[in-house]
Fold this sequence. Notes:
There is one protein chain. It contains 5 helices and 9 strands. By secondary structure, the chain is α+β, with helices and mostly antiparallel strands. It has a domain of 122 residues: Small protein B (Small Protein B, Chain: A). The protein has a 7-stranded antiparallel β-sheet with strand order 1-8-9-2-7-5-4, sandwiched between helices. A two-stranded antiparallel ribbon has the order 3-6. A hairpin with a 2-residue loop joins strand 8 and strand 9. The radius of gyration is 23 Å and the shape is extended.
Amino acid sequence: MSGRQVQYTGPMPQKPADRQKADRTKAERIVSENRKALHDYHILETFEAGVVLLGTEVKAIREGRVNLRDSFARVEQGEVFAYNVHISPYSHRGYADHEPTRPRKLLLHRQEIRKLIGRTVERGLTLVPLRVYFKGGKVKMAVSLARGKQAHDKREAIKKREADRETRAAVKAARR
C-alpha cells in the first residue's frame, strides 16, 4: 500500500430521525426525590406532570437546587398546584429572582385532573410530589395519589427492610 490517506468528504452518517428522538425521550435525569413520602405514604397511582416555572427556577433546578420534603399538591378550581416545593435561588442571578416556595401550577390532561378530583375527595387520599426530573429538556414532576401510613405500617416496613437486608447479607456470605 502507498502512504496516501483517503479523506471522506461526504455527509456524516447519522442515526435515523425517529431513533434520535427515541434516545432523547428516554433520557431522564432525576434532579430530586421525595424519599420521605415513600416512608410516610402508600403510593397508589403516579402521574407525570409538567411544571409552570420561571427562567431562574429552571436554571436553579438544573443546578439541583430543589427540595421536595414536606411538599404536597392540591386540586383547586379544576387546576393542580404544588405547594412547599422549595427551589433555591439561582447562583448566577442578577436582579431577577423568584420566591423559593411559591405555589407552582402543574400541567396535567383534563381527564387526569378529573380522576384526581374524584379520588382526592375520598377520605385519606392526598397528592404528593415524588420526584422532579428532566425529560426531553423539560422539567417534569411525578405526582402520586397516596394514602397516609399509620405508625404500625411504618414499623412493619422497617422490619421488612431489615429482614431483606439480613437475608441478602447471609446469601452474600454463603457465596464466599
